[in-house]
Specification:
159 residues; mainly beta; 3 helices; 9 strands
Length: 159
């Protein structure tokens, strides 16, 4: 299969996400660098289901070094109906909402991979600040099969 066919293939999400199991703190292991995360180290995301039906999203990172000043942003994630909770729309600034698709998830919720249907965004998340290299390599292989450009992935500095 050629690369152009792979990159054009439609991105699939996992069939179902238990938002209560997904809740809690995640460490960014690797990602496609984004302008809004420039200079970020020790990046984490914390998800808390609210009683109003959405998920509270809190992203943190240390700017410019592992001991740098902490940057923080809080937003909301809204589940897309009939998506098995695997498609969300995240909002940090009203009225803008970004697609947040969970495309890979460990059975025990120890890691997750999040993207956007256009494949221009990618985050590999783990419950711990370090990920087993075998697991990471398996995730990378699956991302390659899904048509992601592996050369764009940058490992996130974690303590």
């Amino acid at each position: 299969m050629s690369t152009s066919i792979l990159s054009a293939q439609e991105l699939q999400t996992v069939p179902h996400v238990d938002l209560n199991k997904y809740a809690g703190k995640w460490y960014e292991i690797a990602a496609y660098p984004q302008r809004f995360q420039k200079g970020c180290n020790c990046t984490t995301a914390e998800y808390t289901p609210s009683d109003k039906g959405y998920v509270i999203v809190e992203n943190r990172c240390n700017k410019d070094s592992v001991t740098g000043k902490q940057a923080y942003i809080k937003g909301k994630a809204f589940v897309v109906k009939n998506s098995g909770n695997a498609k969300l729309k995240v909002q940090f600034f009203w009225p803008f909402r970004a697609k947040y698709w969970i495309i890979d998830l460990a059975d025990d919720y120890s890691y997750a991979v999040v993207s956007h249907p256009n494949k221009k965004y990618l985050w590999i998340l783990s419950r711990t600040s370090k990920m087993d290299d075998n697991i990471y390599q398996q995730i990378i292989l699956r991302l390659k099969e899904k048509g992601f450009d592996l050369s764009k992935i940058k490992i996130t500095t974690q303590i």
